[in-house]
Amino acid sequence: MLLKRLACLSFSSSAASRILKIGDVLKHSRKFSDLDVLEYSKLSHDSNPLHFDSKCAKTAGFEDRLVHGMLVAGLFPQIIASHFPGAVYVSQSLHFKSPVYIGEEVIAEVQAVSLRENRKRYIAKFSTKCFKDGRLLVLDGEAMAILPTLSMGEQQ
To answer: What is the pTM of this model?
Structure first.
């Protein structure tokens, strides 16, 4: 299952190199299932009925049950860690723009916006965005991570 999920990771760069540069975009697509929402709820203790009760979600103005926003945001550290094993996630800002419903495909992107060396490691700032239905923005923000190298590791 993990291999299937990681198979959706992709990388685009202005150059063909495997060294991270400003402007490079790393992506991952994912559909969240009922089971994903249930398991996340068990771990986070977030049992808001908007995630489990269609009627409650519709009464609140949504089309159906929602995927937890933080579960969707969890795609960002997954992308970074899969390309840079040993990366340390330092911070993340988030702005929730539109709901994600169970079964919808989400495409998460992290784009390198600044890189600086610090004690043989690299401080990387990333723009973070999630889209659905083509290019509808559902989540954006910024992340900071300490990378052991700018050389991208092979995805497992």
So the answer is: 0.86
* Inter-CA distances, 24 with 16, 20, 92, 99, 115, Å: 11, 7, 18, 27, 11
Place of tokens 């489990």: 52
Residue 81 vs residues 51, 108, 140, 147, 154: alpha-carbon distances, Å: 27, 14, 19, 9, 11
Give me Rg for the CA atoms of the chain.
Answer: 16
Blockwise average pLDDT, block size 10, the chain, 156 residues:
43 61 96 97 96 96 97 97 95 97 97 95 97 94 97 65
68: amino acid identity, one letter: H
Contact 111, 132 (CB under 8 A): no
Return the structure tokens found at 107. Answer: 């495409």
Element (H, E) at 93: strand 88-96
Q: What pLDDT shows up at residue 32? A: 97
d(CA 35, CA 43): 12
Q: Which of 50, 52, 57, 49 is nearest to 38 (CA)?
A: 52
The domains located in the chain, with CATH, are 2-147 (3.10.129.10)
What pLDDT shows up at residue 110? 98
Encoding tokens for residue 125?
């700032």
Q: Which two tokens stand for residue 11?
A: 């990388």
